Amino acid sequence: MTDTAPRPTLEAVAARAGVSRATVSRVVNGGDGVRDVLVERVRKAVDELGYVPNQAARSLVTRRHDAIAVVVAEPETRVFADPFFALQLRGISKELTAHDNQLVLLLTEGRDDHARVGRYLAGGHVDGALVFSLHLDDPLPELIQRAGVPTVFGGRPGWSGDRRGVVYVDSDNRGGARDAVRHLAGLGRTRIAHITGALDQTSAADRLDGYRDVMADADPRLIAEADFTPAGGERAMRELLDRCPDVDAVFAANDLTASGALRVLRESGRRVPDDVAVIGFDDMLPVAEQTDPPLTTVRQDIEEMGRLMARLLLRDLDRGTSHGGPDEGAAEAPSSVVLPTTLVRRASA
């Protein structure tokens, strides 16, 4: 066994800097009212001694934990298999790291997990929450409201009830879908099908609405429901070929769905794009550039969505406001953000 050097204390920093303990505490905890020359001396002493603030003591002063919960309303098997979540988490992580905040990842496998997440958020362990991939019947919004935790949501809220003060970051799902279907129609395709995402999520519902905006008179058999996964895309594509063998174009709700549809089309002997043109949604490069053929898709900036979610929440915390409580007025909260989308043309359409 080896002896461990004693941890530098606040008093040791004060002695090295030649200031009072209270002055060191104000500098370390971000307080005001300290002259610049003293701030510089304290910071130099902190660096020389390798002093690390006691987080528990610091929280008593600042009332901040410098920790943000990121709640993904999906099981871990989905989160770690879908590159969408990796991109969004990367954006969140970059923004939190830049502001010296810790990311606490919480996943939900079932109803018991919802209760656990609600208890954790209400327990005062984190300063706020970033929540995405919610489903319409998800109890998390109500649990979060009860916890009174400042929150920013990923995706347009779809639940009923009071939405005052609810802040979210989303993409123009409906407009992006319209662009995709118009492109297919502009190629001369007349039997344009849509493979949906999980329709208990607003992104999927908005993309379906965008398809219908352009294809108002489309045969209802040209719409097949899926779940944003490659396997769902495969199942839906087989259904479409059975029901409508003359389909000549497919707009899929995301790139993973499109990748499944492409496999089935290839197995059935359909040439893409000669026989059937295919467009996805997301522009996740690990998927879109590696499909056969490379996928034409609607690009949304997933990583930037994550960064914006974190940025909005941190700004709100810095202002000392909370849009998680039941009495919060919409005027006090930051504004929600809807990012534009772009059609990216590759070889599939």
Features of the shown structure:
single chain; 349 residues; alpha/beta; 6-stranded parallel beta sheet; 6-stranded mixed beta sheet
Notes on the structure:
By secondary structure, this protein is of the alpha/beta class. The protein is 44% helix and 15% strand. It has 14 helices and twelve strands. Strand 3, helix 8 (140-147) and strand 4 form a beta-alpha-beta unit. It is elongated.
Summarize the model shown:
The chain is α/β, with parallel strands linked by helices.
Secondary structure layout plus pairing:
Layout: H1 10-17, H2 21-28, H3 36-49, H4 55-62, E1 67-72, H5 76-79, H6 83-98, E2 102-107, H7 111-122, E3 128-132, H8 140-147, E4 151-154, E5 167-171, H9 173-186, E6 192-195, H10 202-214, E7 223-224, H11 230-243, E8 249-252, H12 255-267, E9 277-282, H13 285-288, E10 296-299, H14 302-319, E11 337-339, E12 342-344
Parallel strand pairs: 1-2, 1-3, 3-4, 4-5, 5-11, 6-7, 6-8, 8-9, 9-10
Antiparallel strand pairs: 10-12
Helix pairs in contact: 1-2, 1-3, 2-3, 6-14, 7-8, 9-10, 11-12
The Cα radius of gyration reads 25 Å
The side-by-side strand order for the widest beta sheet comes to 2-1-3-4-5-11
Uncertain ranges: 321-331
Indicate the mean pLDDT. 87
End-to-end distance = 67 Å
SS-derived structural category: alpha/beta
Proportion in β-strands: 5-15%
Estimate the helix proportion, in percent: 40-55%
Please trace the helix and strand order, writing H or E for each element.
HHHHEHHEHEHEEHEHEHEHEHEHEE
Largest sheet: 6 strands, parallel
Oligomeric grouping of the chains: single chain
Tally of individual helices: 14
Envelope shape: elongated
